[in-house]
UniProtKB/TrEMBL annotation:
<dbReference type="GO" id="GO:0043817">
    <property type="term" value="F:phosphosulfolactate synthase activity"/>
</dbReference>
<protein>
    <submittedName>
        <fullName>Phosphosulfolactate synthase</fullName>
        <ecNumber>4.4.1.19</ecNumber>
    </submittedName>
</protein>
<dbReference type="InterPro" id="IPR013785">
    <property type="entry name" value="Aldolase_TIM"/>
</dbReference>
<keyword id="KW-0456">Lyase</keyword>
<comment type="similarity">
    <text>Belongs to the phosphosulfolactate synthase family.</text>
</comment>
<dbReference type="Pfam" id="PF02679">
    <property type="entry name" value="ComA"/>
</dbReference>
<dbReference type="InterPro" id="IPR003830">
    <property type="entry name" value="ComA_synth"/>
</dbReference>
<dbReference type="InterPro" id="IPR036112">
    <property type="entry name" value="ComA_synth_sf"/>
</dbReference>
Length: 249
């Protein structure tokens, strides 16, 4: 159908308007069905937390995503576990073996110094597209706004393609309060000096989706999207939900 005035969505190999889903163990058969119908609305797939290490038929899953032009990558917790055990060399070898082209550099569980993360990106950016996650999974830690801004700026300058703002799959840390409320003042401060198209906001629930869509438009980058929410999110982006009803083309 093509008769309504709705926001114009980016299509094809999007560089903004990104939808990055989180895969926490969806079976291959179910994934195949979802991708057959909804893959045009999906850009990235994070094989979340450390599930890639224990996923059966992992290569088949990676190949399936790629067949539908979705970019797979491993969750940051897997990266941090390897960092903690001094296994980053083995981690990189694993990414190469599975032909994963994107790498997430995060510090959600470990407190990895910014300088080390910058060095890692500088070292890896020639072989991978880098995604740098900023913010802690510890919801008792309130990172100052200036630190958020400095880290994002420096990580992008070092060669990260995008920065991901931590929100967890529960929406209760990082850019969110413990109760799931959005730190809207933080978000507005971030985008004063940083290109919003270089940020992927983790937004695991419809309430979070709608905040970012209403603030930044249909083509805001969103991450940690549940596979079952992909179609509803696309409708939200197109002004086809009550909360985004008055968005027009």
């Amino acid at each position: 159908m093509n008769f309504l005035s709705i926001p114009k969505r980016k299509t094809g190999n999007r560089v903004c308007g990104i939808t990055s889903v989180i895969d926490l163990g969806i079976p291959l058969g179910v994934l195949q069905s979802i991708l057959e119908d909804y893959s045009p609305y999906i850009d990235f797939a994070k094989i979340g937390i450390g599930t890639a290490y224990v996923t059966p038929r992992l290569q088949e899953k990676i190949n399936l995503y790629k067949a539908y032009h979705v970019k797979p990558f491993f969750g940051g917790t897997f990266f941090e576990k390897c960092y903690h055990q001094n296994k980053l060399k083995e981690y990189v070898q694993t990414l190469n073996e599975f032909e994963i082209e994107w790498i997430e550099i995060s510090t959600g569980t470990l407190d990895i110094p910014l300088e080390e993360r910058l060095q890692l990106i500088s070292m890896l950016k020639n072989d991978f597209h880098c995604l740098a996650e900023v913010g802690s999974k510890d919801n008792s830690f309130d990172m100052p706004v200036d630190d958020w801004k400095q880290e994002i700026k420096l990580l992008l300058e070092a060669g990260s393609t995008y920065c991901i703002t931590e929100g967890r799959d529960s929406g209760t840390s990082g850019i969110y309060e413990k109760n799931g409320e959005i730190k809207s003042n933080l978000i507005h401060e971030l985008i004063k000096d940083i290109d919003v198209n270089k940020i992927i906001f983790e937004a695991p629930t419809p309430r979070h989706h709608m905040f970012f869509i209403n603030e930044f438009g249909a083509n805001v980058n969103l991450g940690n999207i549940k596979l079952t929410d992909v179609l509803a999110l696309e409708a939200e982006r197109c002004g086809l939900r009550s909360e985004s009803f008055f968005m027009e083309g």
